[in-house]
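Workshop exercise sheet. Pairs work together: one partner reads the sequence aloud, the other fills in the structure field after running the prediction. Swap roles for the next sheet.
Pair: D.N. / O.F.
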Amino acid sequence: MSANQSPASRWGRARFGGPGVLLLLSLAGGMLISGGFGVLGGMMVAPDDRMLLAGALFAVMTLPATVALVWAMLVDRSTLRGATSDPESSIEGRWYDKAAAAVFTDLLLVCGLGATVFAFTGLQAPINLVLVAVLVVGMADFGARYLSLKRAEG
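Structure field:
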């Protein structure tokens, strides 16, 4: 360890400052993002007399996730105790890449065949249901492929 490098910690350090900077920026950024969610949520779901209450509830409920998101974007992975130095080159990363590439090919095939069937048969369906179906097929395909790769290579 060099003189200007601190030991790895549980919470890490910011890429451009110490752990205090990371904590302060994570809290401030999370509060700002949650405040935006609160404003949007209050305007979208609540009547005028309950807008402030609904907005505050949205902000409080999203605060932990937004703080964690900002922390993950700002933390320097090399300062985290126990963090994998190159997670992209792990075996799980390779399984993910293989499964994602295969799912992309499958979705091209499913969407192409589906478009052909809809075009020639005159079938009609609400677009939101079609998109949900494509999403579910893609997610199920990815899960099955990832687990089969894990079983075969793991």
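Discussion prompt: DSSP finds four helices and no strands in the chain. What would you look at next?
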